[in-house]
Specification:
Keywords: Repeat. The protein is mainly alpha-helical. The chain has helices at about 10-30, 45-50, 95-100, 105-115, 135-140, 145-149, and strands at about 40, 80. The chain has one domain (about 10-55, about 60-149).
Amino acid sequence: ANYKKGGELIDAYNQGGQVEVEKLIREQFGQLMYQEGKGQIINRSEYLRWKFRDCEQVTLPIEASLSRFDPLGKWEDHEACWQMQYRGSLGESLIHVLIICDTKIHTKLARTLIKCFPKLALDVVEGEEYLGAGALHLAIAYNNNELVQ
């Protein structure tokens, strides 16, 4: 799925409905997650590897982490399901994209994704702009009562 409201999941839904979507998710999406969807703890170094993935060399001054405005100043290791290397530029996982697209079909896809991989409900956006926003936060923000349940 993508922000243009297209992608393989939409195509699968249009061709074979919910059954085809669930098959696609179970067959292909486990490899995009830590331990096939069981999750793992994301620590500060994993986050920094993702954040600076396009830089050859990075120097972080110690003073930067002392600022109260630095998101890493309050960093806590946390569990995640979707691998950092497969997240979008805002640190979002597929579940976040589906919620943000905010259509009935995307909501159905999000419910199916969580049904297949329940730990995805715990994933939070890792990028600075939406740092810490989880699926529930986004569903509430988009008034998606079907997902809030």
